[in-house]
Design a protein that fits this description.
Blueprint lengths: L1 E3 L4 E4 L11 E6 L2 E6 L2 E6 L4 E8 L2 E2 L6 H9 L3 E6 L10 E2 L4 E2 L4 E6 L4
Antiparallel strand pairs: 1-4, 2-3, 3-6, 4-5, 6-7, 8-11, 9-10
């Protein structure tokens, strides 16, 4: 088992009728542990260490656009969300039955809503 080093960034993307007044955002984890064992990747993320970098516009982060009050508002809502992954990117074959007439999409959605205990 090997420990991996690096950065973990989380991106959110706006959509909807009023998306023009919203922002795409970038966050990062200050504390996390990633281990590699063969083809397996295991991760532990300290949600309390998820920190807002700032809004993203034209591919660049603009931390100066959010004051402490705006950051606190965003960080308060950070413990809820969802992520979609594609198992095929890691070599996991799509489940099929009846010669492919029934199959699962190549998408797994992970939704979370967390509270501190």
């Amino acid at each position: 088992m090997r420990r991996a080093k690096g950065n973990i960034r989380v991106f959110t993307f706006k959509e909807g009728v009023l998306s023009a007044v919203a922002h795409d955002l970038q966050f990062h984890f200050e504390q996390f542990a990633i281990t590699l064992e063969g083809e397996a990747v295991h991760g532990e993320f300290d949600l309390k260490s998820l920190s807002l970098d700032g809004p993203v516009r034209d591919g660049a982060v603009h931390p100066e656009e959010y004051d402490a009050g705006k950051r606190a508002e965003v960080e308060k809502a950070m413990h809820r969300g969802q992520v979609e992954i594609q198992p095929s990117r890691w070599g996991v074959a799509q489940y099929k039955a009846l010669l492919g007439a029934i199959r699962l999409k190549d998408t797994v959605r992970i939704a979370f809503e967390l509270t501190d205990t």
